[in-house]
Write a structure and sequence with these properties.
The protein is built from 8 helices and 13 strands. It has 281 residues and is of the alpha/beta class. Strand 10 and strand 11 form a beta hairpin. The chain starts with 6 loop residues before the first helix and ends in a 6-residue tail after the last helix.
Amino acid sequence: MSGTLKRDQFELLVRLAEKKPVQDDLSELTEKEFVKDGSITEKGLEALLPYRAKRAVFIAAGFGSRLVPITLNTPKPLVRVNGKRIIDGLIDACLDAGINEIYIVRGYLGEQFDQLLYKYPMIKFIDNTLYSSANNISSALLAKELLSDSYVFEADLLISNPKIITPYHYTSDFLAIKKEHTDDWCFEVNDGVITKEKVGGDDCWQMVGISFWNDADGKKLSGDIENIFARDDGKQRYWEQVPLEFCKENYRVEVRECFDEDIIEIDTFAELKIIDKSYDV
């Protein structure tokens, strides 16, 4: 955590910054000149700056093999669903949250991502030449100096509720959906903190491939990702296994709740045909 606000102060200031109604006692924040007449002041906004997301890194180098045949000629993030590229919704959500520094780590059919520049000229690309021989940790390694105060996105998530991309974060967190049962990647959670990542479980939190890393954790990730990648088996690991499994003693990552209706990952071509009938021909 980079700032000095207490948790309750942070949450109140965020609500005021978002112009949401607040019924709480604001006297302490008023004394600090963070609030005046029930509204956040410039000083209050300055107090929130250390908690603000500065950039977004999209991991978009993979094959998208489960979406064959569509991905034979198109990277999965660029597949159109009901007329809109999958990645566009995520980028638009970042821009709506005031996150304008955007990086995309690309690999498979990487030149096709250039089309994004017509709509999003601020995007910067990082080319991953190892995408065919290493897992997504190779993409995180290339972006390791960009992970502080940063969102990290899987680039193939179809977002319906852009409000889940929020500008302010009190600590590092991972989006997840509470489930009675899932066969997917999920978290065990204790008092809001992720204690274990695993595949499948009961009474758990299904992982959504969107996380935020504060300044301190982003700096630790830079070194930890490099160290794990250098191991004999490191190239075949998922990047998030670094903070959640291999080096979890270095991190305290909270779970941030979202819901099935907010965002989905289209895993297979059959699922794509259900969501977008134009593919069902």
